[in-house]
Design goal:
The complex is a heterodimer.
Chain A lengths: L1 H12 L2 H38 L4 E6 L9 H10 L5 E4 L1 E9 L2 E10 L2 H5 L4 E4 L4 H6 L3 E4 L1 H8 L8 E4 L2 E9 L14 E5 H7 L9 E5 L6 H15 L10 E5 L1 H43 L1 H9 L4 H37 L11 H28 L2 H5 L4
Parallel strand pairs in A: 4-9, 6-8
Antiparallel strand pairs in A: 1-10, 1-11, 2-10, 3-4, 3-7, 5-8, 6-9, 7-8
Helix pairs in contact in A: 1-11, 2-9, 2-11, 2-12, 9-11, 9-12, 11-12
Chain B lengths: L1 E12 L2 E13 L4 E5 L6 H8 L7 E6 L2 E2 L5 H11 E4 L11 H12 L3 H14 L15 H13 L5 E5 L7 H16 L3 E6 L2 H4 L4 E6 L2 E5 L2
Parallel strand pairs in B: 3-8, 3-9, 6-7, 7-8
Antiparallel strand pairs in B: 1-2, 1-4, 4-5, 9-10
Helix pairs in contact in B: 3-4, 3-5, 4-5
Classes of the chains: A alpha+beta, B alpha/beta.
Chain lengths: 398, 223
């Protein structure tokens, strides 16, 4: 085997220019495959990283207990303490209220929540502060205005410290939100006023019955699916099902979005990979072509080898090995050049915080693919060589 | 050893059928030195191909060591060529990309001889033909006589029972021809069966026995 490998290498080495030209097809094919798929992977990773960094890796739950079974704030707090898969929760109680600032009145969506809400939803403050823990403990009547609420009610951002009234009760404005970068947060279209959850319970009796919606986040490195499962089992225990066997809750996670995104990029990678594979196959045909020429050129050699005792299998193996070695050499060069290109590309797009690395899967895939191409396209010429009759081969060309 | 019985071989050249071997019958015994003599086109190359298991007859029976050749598979024939027959060709038929050493080594590789023994046998074969000092040279770097001696080394490295030489001196001058013939004589004396095919009466006379071939017909001749 080692002998045959040496023979194949020598035979390839004896005509270097031709070998390189033949390999070129494979080299370009491998480069196309590896570079394209790696770039798609790199771009996908960048986008998903950005999505994650925006703080949108949350699980959202809706609960409807109809007054019989409820989830309270203290239930949530206890659960967060004991559940390792959940890092933070924030209730999201909603109500409707008439807000009055100076002489202006406007209907507003009131959201009662806790400090954790800010990070979970990736909000951005334009001025002031968000809800604090002390606000929750005291049920302080403070509020934070969303960007549209500021536009609609106040008209300028510099209103921290002013007072407004919600259904007649006075609240101090402690903060104003700016436009967030969050892609997923939906609250901006509405006129939203955030107040501490405890203040909400005091003023709006319908909220006191229980939490109807909350957000939960998982510690870094936890799969969203696991966090989602933890939320589900918590709610199954707390509120369970109604009399007709339907769940009393609904859980929704960003995982769904990520999966959808993943599907799109997978399709893209497969599509591009497929196109690149075609060029690999073309390269394989080039190998077959040259191998056929080689077999014809070496007819006499085949005859000599057969006369001194090579059988069909020996000759077949020799030429097949030569084709496979040619393919694998092309593959190795192609992978190396791809690595160079990706390094170069990474430097060029470094400002866009993108990076491209050689994906192990793609490398493995292209190695296997090249091997298969070598075998498939080497088989016909090798078989042609093996089938030659020793006498015809010996007398070929004189 | 070699037992040809009523062997015929017909070639189709264009529309004409050429009877290269016409009911040839011949026996060669172990340890004989036989020359087969005939002008070009007489069918002696065909005879050599059949004796050397490179080609099969159209009709008749060829037995090598008592076993009919037709019964063998392609794989078995390759094994017979490797183990029993050592070929020496007019145009040497060395593989140009391989050095003298590697050319001699090749049949042993095909036979599956281990590296240590291989190297030992190649060394002694090259020593025998006096070319050990040129072992690393490519065939193109050697003279005709040297190339033929490499070919002889390749033929005898497998220790075949039959050495088949097809016009071994055809491309050589008379001095180197004599060297080659001397080597063949030595091989014969050491117990090999040697079949020498030639068109040259002087060369043929070297053998103990001569068979004449003309138009595919064989006849014993006394020299």
């Amino acid at each position: 085997m080692i002998m045959s490998l040496k023979m194949a290498l020598r035979s390839i080495g004896s005509n270097k220019l031709r070998a390189v030209l033949t390999m070129l097809g494979i080299i370009i094919g491998v480069m196309a495959l590896v570079v394209l798929v790696s770039i798609v992977n790199g771009a996908t990773r960048t986008v998903t990283d950005q999505m994650a960094s925006l703080g949108n890796n949350y699980v959202q739950a809706y609960v409807w207990g109809y007054g019989k079974k409820v989830v309270t704030m203290s239930d949530l707090n206890e659960w967060v303490e004991s559940e390792p898969l959940i890092e933070a929760v924030a209730p999201d109680a909603q109500s409707d209220s008439m807000a009055k600032y100076g002489s202006k009145s406007q209907r507003m969506t009131i959201r009662g929540t806790t400090p954790a809400y800010y990070d979970i939803n990736g909000l951005q403050l334009a001025a002031g502060r968000f809800i604090k823990n002390s606000d929750i403990q005291n049920g302080s009547r403070v509020c934070i205005l969303g960007p549209s609420a500021v536009d609609a009610l106040v008209g300028y951002t510099d209103c921290v410290g002013d007072e407004l009234s919600l259904d007649g009760l006075r609240y101090t404005i402690v903060g104003v939100l700016g436009k967030s970068e969050s892609l997923m947060y939906s609250g901006y279209g509405e006129n939203v006023v955030y107040i501490p959850y405890t203040a909400m319970i005091r003023q709006f009796p319908n909220v006191a019955e229980g939490i109807t919606s909350f957000y939960a986040t998982a510690p870094e490195g936890t799969a969203m699916a696991e966090a989602e499962a933890a939320v589900r089992s918590f709610l199954a225990e707390k509120v369970g099902q109604d009399d007709w066997g339907n769940d009393n809750y609904y859980v929704y996670s960003m995982d769904v979005m990520e999966n959808a995104m993943g599907n799109v990029t997978n399709v893209l990678a497969i599509l591009l990979g497929g196109i690149a594979s075609i060029s690999l196959i073309v390269g394989g045909i080039g190998i077959m072509n040259i191998m056929l020429v080689t077999v014809t050129e070496r007819t006499r050699e085949i005859g000599i080898r057969k006369a001194i005792g090579a059988n069909r299998g020996t000759i077949l193996r020799q030429f097949l090995l030569e084709a496979v070695v040619l393919c694998m050499m092309g593959c190795a060069i192609g992978i190396f050049l791809s690595w160079c290109i990706l390094r170069l590309a990474s430097v060029v797009v470094a400002e866009m915080s993108m990076s491209f690395t050689l994906s192990g899967t793609v490398v493995l895939l292209s190695v296997i693919f090249c091997f298969v191409i070598g075998v498939v396209f080497g088989l016909y010429p090798a078989n042609k060589a093996a089938k030659m009759k020793p006498i015809d081969a010996l007398h070929y060309g004189g | 050893m070699i037992d040809l019985n009523d062997v015929s071989k017909v070639y189709q050249i264009g529309t004409e059928k050429v009877r290269a071997l016409d009911h040839a019958t011949m026996h060669i015994y172990p340890r004989e030195f036989v020359s087969i003599i005939g002008p070009s086109g007489s069918g002696k190359s065909t005879l050599m191909n059949i004796i050397g298991c490179l080609d099969t007859a159209d009709a008749g029976v060829y037995k090598l060591d008592g076993i009919p050749i037709e019964d063998y598979s392609e794989r078995q024939l390759a094994k017979i060529r490797n183990e029993k027959i050592g070929f020496i060709f007019q145009n040497f038929n060395l593989i140009p990309k391989l050095s003298a050493w590697e050319n001699v080594e090749l049949p042993l590789i095909y036979r599956g001889v281990r590296a240590a023994e291989r190297s030992e046998r190649v060394r002694s074969a090259l020593e025998r033909v006096g070319l050990l000092n040129r072992a690393r040279h490519l065939p193109t770097e050697l003279s005709g006589g040297q190339q033929q001696r490499v070919a002889i080394a390749r033929a005898l490295v497998t220790r075949p029972s039959l050495i088949l030489a097809d016009e071994p001196t055809g491309n050589l001058d008379s001095r180197t021809s004599r060297e080659i013939i001397d080597i063949l004589h030595e091989l014969h004396e050491q117990g090999n069966t040697v079949v020498l095919i030639t068109h040259d009466n002087d060369i043929a006379r070297q053998a103990k026995r001569s068979v004449h071939i003309l138009d595919g017909r064989l006849s014993e001749v006394q020299l």
